[in-house]
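Students often ask why we bother encoding 3D structure as a string. The short answer is that it lets us treat folding as translation between two languages. Here is a chain of 349 residues written in the first language.
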Amino acid sequence: MAIERNILVTGGAGFIGTHTAAALLRQGFKVWIIDNLDNAAAAAVDRLRNLVGPELSQNLHFQLGDIRNGDDLEKLFSQTQFDAVIHFAGLKAVGESVANPMRYFDNNLVGSITLYKIMAKYNCKKLVFSSSATVYGQPDKIPCLEDMELKAMNPYGRTKLFLEEIARDLHVADSKWRIILLRYFNPVSAHESGMLGEDPKGIPNNLMPYITQVAVGRLPELNVYGHDYPTPDGSAIRDYIHVVDLADGHVVALEKLLKHESIGCVAYNLGTGRGTSVLEMVDAFERASGKKIPIKLCPRRPGDATAVYASTEKAFRELGWKAKYGIDEMCRDQWKWASQNPWGYESKP
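And here it is in the second language, the structure alphabet:
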């Protein structure tokens, strides 16, 4: 059990943030969430409180705020001495970033730099950063290893790559900074209780919520982008990881950060180490839900890679972390969330 450790979770009302906050609370941490609810719902925080129960939810604090606004951060840091920050806050859609790069530079870069300035001011120099497999671009070989050349293919990926570089520079300039960069592959699914899940605003950018909205009747068909890739079934291959496994990865990374002084700035892949094609995932979801998912084959999207999956050996060796769940469990838990919450955190509009 943690000894009264105070953790700030930026973007903690979002999909990965709520699941990670639940895991942190269960491990005895005190959790402060700051979120501007740009792509999240206040109801998710209420659900989180219900999920962990009355005793643990006393250790959960929520502030509506934006990390680009130094005053919002000052309010938090001036009142609480944080032991570390887990930094999720940022925009995350590849297609949107190609269409509107400035929005991504403002949110992801300006927001993070503002956060790091305030952290340094209040001498909180321990950070777990939400990075992404997009930093590998279209890798020359797979699986992706942490020491491979980084070459993002789109503005979203570049914001993650720039922020990794900023983190490395921060540590070089001041060795008191301890930073773990977690490169996620494709987070999917939901909490097994069906109480927490992914609830994107607007048309989903990711495969699993898109399949889900077709399954519950919100969308007529699933657009599959790219069916002529050089893969066994022509659809793109990704490394899908259950969000609960991902949340556990953050807890072990945080514990390492708090225990080891000489950690420096280090990157870990969080994935399953296995590639699954888009059409394989559709099949698995049909099995889990008993629903037929009508699909429409569409051209490839700009900025999308053919096949990307993780080497997860470093995370296992140095963090003792390994993904537990496969695609059948991912689809099972996703369908439980979707069937109980067909309109996400809202009741039907």
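Translate back mentally: The first helix runs from residue 15 to 26. Keep this in mind for the problem set.
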